[in-house]
């Protein structure tokens, strides 16, 4: 796919998302529904939301609004909860029971099982998030107790938080050389996955440990040490940890925060399908790291035989 086509695809996807969100984005007129539930039920719902990646952008107040808005449903075994191809109007949390994901082939009408979901699981969110038809059917395998969240509340609370988070991090992502070949759509996906962390005069990553995350500095400074020697310093917009991210090797250095250092963390599992566009920059970084180590007469076994 050409670069122009990739950006056209990105613009189309983003414009659809923004257009649909705009229909619901009137906070002065919106009031989330409140459905009765016990304190124990509310805590279980909250716990499920906090474990779900989709809700990681929602603040404490928003989570509480969502918990109140979930509505209870009793479903009997064999019931089709979601029908493939339908428009999405709800997402669901499983209180108890098991359901199966079934997808019908467009070529031969064969139905394939995509897996199952049980207590604590969440499903149906993708159709709401991306304004797309249901990608598969969900059928209750046993009697189930479900909680549903309506589309309007989802758009006001969850989408609003996601868009705010994207705006906050997009400028940072554009400034990082490692990511400047990604199209806007892919940058949005990365922004959704970022986790903000704060370190004060402490190690952010440690030499020799297993690395699965890339870090980008939003505020403050940090310094990299290899075998106790200073090899590199980082300021706002700097990033580190990318070699271990793609090569899955032990960390080549220790990076320590100087005073207060605010970083965002990107885990490998969140960007594994985007690693290709990053490889050229990583190769250049690896060459630079090796030159610095050579100038300091440092031999690092974690980098010596590494090829990207």
Automatic annotation (TrEMBL):
GO terms for cellular component: cAMP-dependent protein kinase complex; cytosol. 3',5'-cyclic AMP 1 binds at residues 125, 134. GO terms for molecular function: cAMP binding; cAMP-dependent protein kinase inhibitor activity; kinase activity; protein kinase A catalytic subunit binding. Residues 54-175, 178-292 form the Cyclic nucleotide-binding domain. Signal peptide: none annotated. Keywords: cAMP, cAMP-binding, Coiled coil, Kinase, Nucleotide-binding, Phosphoprotein, Repeat, Transferase. Residues 279-306 form a coiled coil. 3',5'-cyclic AMP 2 binds at residues 242, 251. InterPro entries: cAMP-dep_PK_reg_su-like, cAMP_dep_PK_reg_su, cNMP-bd_CS, cNMP-bd_dom, cNMP-bd_dom_sf, RmlC-like_jellyroll. Belongs to the cAMP-dependent kinase regulatory chain family. This is cAMP-dependent kinase regulatory subunit. It comes from Babesia ovata.
């Amino acid at each position: 796919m050409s670069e122009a086509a990739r950006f056209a695809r990105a613009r189309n996807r983003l414009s659809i998302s923004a257009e649909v969100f705009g229909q619901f984005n009137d906070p002065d007129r919106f009031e989330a529904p409140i459905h009765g539930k016990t304190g124990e039920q509310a805590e279980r719902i909250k716990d499920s939301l906090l474990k779900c990646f989709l809700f990681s952008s929602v603040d404490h107040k928003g989570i509480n609004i969502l918990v109140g808005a979930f509505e209870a449903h009793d479903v009997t075994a064999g019931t089709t909860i979601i029908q493939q191809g339908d428009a999405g109007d709800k997402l669901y949390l499983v209180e108890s029971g098991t359901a199966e994901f079934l997808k019908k082939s467009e070529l031969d009408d064969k139905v394939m099982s995509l897996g199952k979901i049980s207590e604590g699981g969440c499903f149906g969110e993708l159709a709401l998030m991306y304004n797309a038809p249901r990608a598969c059917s969900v059928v209750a395998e046993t009697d189930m107790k479900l909680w549903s969240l309506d589309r309007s509340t989802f758009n006001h609370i969850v989408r609003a938080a996601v868009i705010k988070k994207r705006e906050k991090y997009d400028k940072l992502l554009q400034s990082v050389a490692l990511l400047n070949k990604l199209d806007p759509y892919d940058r949005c996906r990365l922004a959704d996955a970022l986790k903000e962390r704060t370190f004060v005069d402490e190690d952010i990553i440690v030499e020799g440990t297993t690395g699965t995350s890339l870090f980008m500095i939003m505020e403050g400074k940090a310094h990299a040490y290899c075998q106790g020697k200073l090899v590199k310093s980082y300021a706002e917009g700097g990033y580190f940890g990318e070699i271990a991210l793609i090569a899955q090797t032990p960390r080549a250095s220790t990076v320590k925060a100087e005073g207060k250092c605010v970083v965002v963390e990107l885990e490998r599992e969140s960007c594994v399908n985007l690693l290709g566009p990053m490889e050229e920059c990583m190769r250049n970084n690896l060459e630079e790291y090796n030159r610095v180590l050579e100038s300091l007469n440092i031999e690092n076994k974690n980098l010596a035989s590494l090829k990207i």
